[in-house]
């Protein structure tokens, strides 16, 4: 069964450039001198990639975490590097699989625009580019044999490289021999089907609504709209009794109003327009059994428009309070956004400036390159930093002067029609998406862990060399299987898989 130590519902990715690997004597053990040579190349590659994906991700609303890349090179004490130089990252997508496939689309676009890169992508369950279309037996063919290259899914066959070949050896095969071995046609069709419609369907996945919220929440969403995902997640995951008690008065966001004779705060609300993904909207409206806290003024149902806007705003405000209190409890409030000086200090520690004095001309050239890189990369990394450590940013925004009058008389966009929510095919997709929640609960019961637990970053791989075992699927997963196709049987034999050990059942996972 999937590796239960890995963060659940998380996609991992790593991008390796041919030219960088060709410069190294041993990509697995990079000397300090070699690091100085490849670090600049990694920065340049990162900037190219950011320019490629920027038009797609600028307004994209992530369910949990954004797509982020970081250079893997760090100097070890020996002083040698113990990682293969690459750009890597990971994104938690929860049950919103659209985020995962959007990332595949981004990686495909990168590989089309930069043909001399090999890209690894997998998730908590392993090689998901194949899962559901090719037998679980494929995972026994060896690790790190599935890549994206030149806009195609590539498999390194056992006839090309031994089954025990390492990631470095498989990358070397792709880099030096430049032989591309496309995945079976069924895999190609399946992946293309998942990412077809991008980038056009990015717009159709957005839902805009009007809500009535305290001015503090309006300020927060004006400055950091990315935090809406945390608010909705916080509201939907209200199973922590202690957090509910801390949040029910909404002290962080509802505190400026008058107090009634009964001692209850009366907050004046402002009307704003907010964007979220359709999946987020489904979650928000689906949570009906929730009694509004006394501090939040709810209009009568006879005023249907105001009532709906206020209830949705109340849910967001409560979600923000849950997010804030949960982040404080988990100690996620101290880390601020990375500054240019902190970035330069980190580079200096890694040897990027080659020990040059700050007055040297070559030092200034390297410094300018670093500043340019930071300016472009920080636009993407700051969103992740805000999401991972929201408290300090929330406090910073709430400390700014703000008044109700700032949000009065605004020309707001109307709420989008949500008729799509009630169409039968949409309901079916919603049921299917909830299947992921069922699997999470089954795993939680098996391990005794909470389904609402945060991912433990200690177990996140470095962007490569993952090892997930599929030999031990348990009974709750049995209905996920069907039979192999004839094409897949030929594929398995080509990969050196012994089907006789499958008990003659010839079963494979069914696409969810």
Automatic annotation (TrEMBL):
Q: Which domain of life is it from?
A: Eukaryota
Under InterPro entries, the record lists: Ecd
Give the CC-aspect GO terms.
Answer: nucleus
Q: Which residues lie within the region annotated Disordered?
A: 442-461
One Pfam family named in its UniProt record: SGT1
Q: What is this protein's name?
A: Uncharacterized protein
Q: Which organism is it from?
A: Papaver nudicaule
